[in-house]
């Protein structure tokens, strides 16, 4: 069985920064949108969590069948999330005032609706991945709209340099790959990349990755 360091393609004496950089690189490679698979994605995430927890021997980190997120701090921002595809399936609108109440009552799968906390200095996308979710992305740097979310309540930071037009940011559209919570509670609809004004800003995951790796 590989050790967590093997899974992240790291030497066992790698420092914290090297571990984080390797995790970001490997989680991209393993993402189903980028030619990986959900199982590989979960394995990379589990390896990262094991290293953070100091469980670095192969036998000390049996791969989890269900998601085991790190214990959140109660004071960390709490995100309630909903998949945009659920809106289409149910005839709901982003502007519905009771959108999240309807979602809470709909007995949705945990991939589609739920809550998680975002640890300090994590972006929303990183936090989603650390909780085992495969939210869409491409560049991870603010240059496309693949990772866009609609913020219904609360807010996410938005760097000065990003691709979104002001009419989208005015409507609460943010980029999960670079956005960190700036309120204690948020409600976000993720997977909004197919909204009309965002569709043309999207990048195909594979070719963009290959081009940016050149
Ligand atoms: S993945 Fe491209 S802006 Fe977030």
Automatic annotation (TrEMBL):
Domain 2Fe-2S ferredoxin-type: 104-194
Pfam annotation, one family: DnaJ
Cofactor: [2Fe-2S] cluster
Alphabetic keyword roster: 2Fe-2S, Electron transport, Iron, Iron-sulfur, Metal-binding, Transport
Region (Disordered): 54-74
Comp. bias regions, Acidic residues: 62-74
Annotated InterPro entries: 2Fe-2S_ferredoxin-like_sf, 2Fe-2S_ferredoxin-type, 2Fe2S_fd_BS, 2Fe2S_Ferredoxin, Beta-grasp_dom_sf, DnaJ_domain, J_dom_sf
Domain J: 3-56
Domain of life the protein comes from: Archaea
GO molecular function: 2 iron, 2 sulfur cluster binding; metal ion binding
Family matches, as PROSITE patterns: 2FE2S_FER_1 (PS00197), 2FE2S_FER_2 (PS51085), DNAJ_2 (PS50076)
Entries under CDD domains matching the protein: DnaJ (cd06257), fer2 (cd00207)
SUPFAM superfamilies for this protein: 2Fe-2S ferredoxin-like (SSF54292), Chaperone J-domain (SSF46565)
Family stated for the protein in its record: Belongs to the 2Fe2S plant-type ferredoxin family.
PANTHER family to which the protein is assigned, alphabetical: FERREDOXIN, FERREDOXIN-2, CHLOROPLASTIC
Protein name according to UniProt: Ferredoxin
């Amino acid at each position: 069985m590989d050790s967590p360091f093997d899974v992240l393609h790291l030497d066992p004496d790698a420092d914290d920064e090297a571990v984080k950089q390797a995790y970001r690189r490997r989680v991209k490679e393993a993402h189903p949108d980028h030619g990986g698979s959900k199982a590989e994605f979960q394995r990379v995430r589990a390896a990262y969590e094991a290293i953070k927890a100091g469980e670095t021997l192969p036998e000390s980190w049996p791969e989890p069948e269900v998601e085991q997120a790190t214990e959140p701090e109660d004071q960390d921002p709490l995100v309630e999330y909903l998949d945009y595809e659920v809106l289409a399936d149910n005839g709901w609108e982003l502007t519905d005032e009771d959108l999240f109440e309807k979602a809470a009552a709909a007995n949705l799968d945990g991939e589609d609706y739920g809550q998680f906390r975002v640890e300090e200095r994590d972006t929303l996308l990183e936090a989603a991945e650390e909780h085992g979710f495969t939210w869409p992305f491409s560049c991870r740097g603010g240059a496309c709209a693949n990772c866009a979310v609609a913020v219904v309540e609360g807010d996410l930071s938005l760097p000065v340099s990003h691709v979104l037009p002001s009419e989208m940011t005015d409507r609460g559209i943010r980029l999960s790959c670079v956005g960190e919570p700036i309120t204690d509670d948020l409600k976000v609809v993720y997977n909004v990349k197919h909204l009309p004004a965002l569709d043309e800003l999207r990048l195909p995951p594979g070719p963009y990755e290959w081009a940016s790796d050149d």
